[in-house]
């Protein structure tokens, strides 16, 4: 450093915070730029390394910023009225990383009023810039959400008001026209009923959507059997499908279980099947299937042969601000909110929803839900044999949870609450034998179908026949053949 550089100035250059400072003497004999040690923190270079560069540090300025930066600095140096310049630009650190910096440049004049020196302070403002970008993006996101809500309210106001035209019009006719025929009365009442049903569905969707958004609708995940849930949903829509002569095929394994809120899961499946029916021509087929997506999720697919979705409307699906409604193949009305709600429900469960569609050929909607841990329940009164069988199954099926109990009453509570994938039960047990346990399961839940393997102490043909009438596999327990057990287990778990 030059001799005229005071001790105080050296302290400023080398000991203030994590920023770095620079100094340039404009005398005839000295035009070198000096940097404080803090330059390492910001640039990664030593002062000597920057001084040895042709531009004494200019080379590390990003090319995109260099030209405008140079122009601002030159203008500042030549403007006698300005004593301070603040600029922001990007530099490339020694390790190649880009960082944002803020530089403040000051002028110093000598006793004669001539420009003698430039001082500069440079700060790393990358964190501030990152936050600034986040805030800008968030503002834009909120603007979009606000615009979407305005559009949604506009669409919703129309959808809430429009059906009342039909309801009020037809009800007025029924009230004021005593001479209309019974056929016309029935027709008008059907219009009123359809419009009312649509309104009620829209209001229910709105309530659920609002509760999901605000967190007031709590998700209560339980172990739910996928097959029975799908069949229940199909059953509720059978009448609508029959009127259009649409065949609904279900291909969902009995062994598939998911962790889901059963009421909300029903809403998802019913909505997707209802849409498939609505947008399918008569005498077509709808397929509902489920497959293992990965080790944590089950994938459901609802596929139709309907009118498909136009390219224009594909971007509008699931977006509350771009909600639209399309009439079905027989003029069926819709709310336009159903799919948005379906997506919300699926995502609240930790799953995903997506679709494929070709206009004129049909659509298929896919969604995933968390798979539930598969359970094998052992009911065995002998504690030693129960433990031996439990250990054997844990080795055979490491991905399954093995639960063991000693009597049918305890087993019944677990079956009804946790729905195991398979039940292995002794026939001879205190208080309740194997047959009585199966009868109790069927009595408590007629649609509950848990595969059962009964272990018999003797080779009684009569007993075997009784179990077979319930569709239950029997094995001789004394002795129990492990290879035979595994064979029957595999059959039951795969099916």
Features:
flat, Beta-Lactamase, Heat Shock Protein 90, five-stranded antiparallel sheet, Helix Hairpins, about 500 residues, alpha/beta
Describe the structure.
With 495 residues, the protein is α/β, with parallel strands linked by helices. It has 4 domains: 7-124, 2-Layer Sandwich (Beta-Lactamase); 144-214, Signal transduction histidine kinase, dimerisation/phosphotransfer (DHp) domain (Helix Hairpins), CATH 1.10.287; 222-370, Histidine kinase-like ATPase, C-terminal domain (Heat Shock Protein 90, 2-Layer Sandwich), CATH 3.30.565.10; 375-494, 3-Layer(aba) Sandwich (Rossmann fold). It is 46% helix and 22% strand. It is built from 16 helices and 17 strands. The protein has helices at 7-15, 39-43, 47-52, 63-78, 126-176, 182-214, 226-236, 238-243, 262-278, 311-314, 338-348, 383-396, 408-418, 434-444, 461-469, 482-494; strands at residues 20-25, 33-35, 84-92, 98-109, 115-124, 222-225, 247-251, 257-260, 285-292, 297-303, 353-358, 362-370, 375-379, 401-405, 422-426, 452-456, 473-476. The protein has a 5-stranded antiparallel β-sheet, sandwiched between helices. Strands 7-9-10-12-11 form a 5-stranded mixed β-sheet. Strands 14-13-15-16-17 form a 5-stranded parallel β-sheet, sandwiched between helices. Helix 6 (182-214) packs parallel to helix 11, helix 7 (226-236) packs across helix 9 (262-278) and helix 9 packs antiparallel against helix 11 (338-348). The longest helix is centred in the N-terminal third of the chain and has 51 residues, at 126-176. The radius of gyration is 37 Å and the shape is flat. The termini are far apart. The model has no long low-confidence stretch (mean pLDDT 81).
């Amino acid at each position: 450093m030059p001799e005229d550089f005071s001790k105080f100035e050296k302290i400023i250059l080398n000991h203030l915070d994590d920023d770095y400072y620079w100094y340039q003497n404009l005398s005839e004999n000295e035009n070198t730029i000096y940097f404080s040690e803090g330059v390492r923190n910001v640039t990664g270079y030593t002062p000597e390394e920057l001084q040895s560069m042709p531009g004494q540090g200019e080379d590390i300025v990003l090319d995109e910023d260099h030209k405008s930066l140079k122009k601002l600095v030159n203008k500042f140096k030549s403007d006698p009225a300005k004593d301070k310049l603040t600029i922001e630009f990007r530099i490339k650190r020694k390790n190649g990383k880009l960082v944002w910096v803020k530089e403040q440049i000051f002028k110093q004049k000598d006793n004669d009023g001539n420009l003698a020196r430039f001082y500069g302070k440079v700060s790393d403002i990358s964190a501030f810039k990152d936050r600034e970008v986040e805030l800008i993006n968030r503002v834009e996101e909120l603007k979009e959400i606000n615009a979407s809500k305005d559009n949604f309210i506009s669409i919703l106001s129309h959808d809430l008001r429009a059906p009342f035209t039909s309801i009020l019009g037809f009800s007025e006719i029924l009230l004021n026209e005593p001479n209309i025929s019974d056929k016309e009365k029935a027709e008008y009442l059907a219009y009123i009923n359809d419009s009312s049903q649509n309104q009620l569905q829209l209001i229910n969707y709105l309530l659920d959507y609002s509760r999901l958004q605000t967190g007031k609708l709590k998700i209560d995940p339980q172990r739910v059997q996928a097959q029975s849930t799908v069949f229940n949903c199909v059953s509720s829509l059978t009448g609508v499908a029959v009127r259009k002569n649409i065949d609904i095929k279900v291909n969902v394994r009995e062994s598939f279980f998911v962790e889901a809120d059963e009421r909300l899961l029903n809403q998802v499946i019913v909505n997707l099947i209802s849409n498939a029916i609505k947008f399918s021509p008569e005498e077509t087929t709808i397929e509902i299937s489920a497959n293992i997506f990965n080790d944590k999720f089950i994938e459901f697919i609802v596929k139709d042969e309907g009118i498909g979705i136009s390219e224009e409307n594909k971007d509008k699906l699931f977006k509350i601000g771009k909600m639209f409604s399309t009439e079905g193949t027989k003029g069926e009305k819709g709310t336009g909110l159903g799919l948005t709600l379906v997506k919300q429900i699926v995502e609240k469960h930790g799953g995903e929803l997506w679709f494929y569609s070709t206009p004129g050929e049909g659509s298929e909607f896919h969604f995933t839900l968390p798979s539930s841990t598969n359970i094998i329940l052992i009911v065995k009164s002998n504690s030693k044999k129960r433990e031996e069988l439990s250990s054997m199954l844990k080795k055979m099926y490491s991905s399954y949870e093995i639960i063991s109990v000693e009597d049918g009453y305890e087993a019944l509570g677990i079956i009804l609450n946790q729905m195991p994938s398979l039940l292995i039960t002794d026939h001879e047990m205190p208080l309740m034998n194997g047959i009585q346990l199966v009868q109790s399961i069927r009595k408590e839940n007629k649609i509950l179908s848990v595969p059962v393997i009964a272990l018999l102490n003797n080779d009684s043909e009569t007993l075997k026949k009784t179990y077979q009438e319930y569709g239950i596999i029997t094995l001789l327990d004394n002795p129990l053949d492990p290879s035979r057990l595994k064979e029957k287990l595999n059959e039951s778990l795969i099916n």
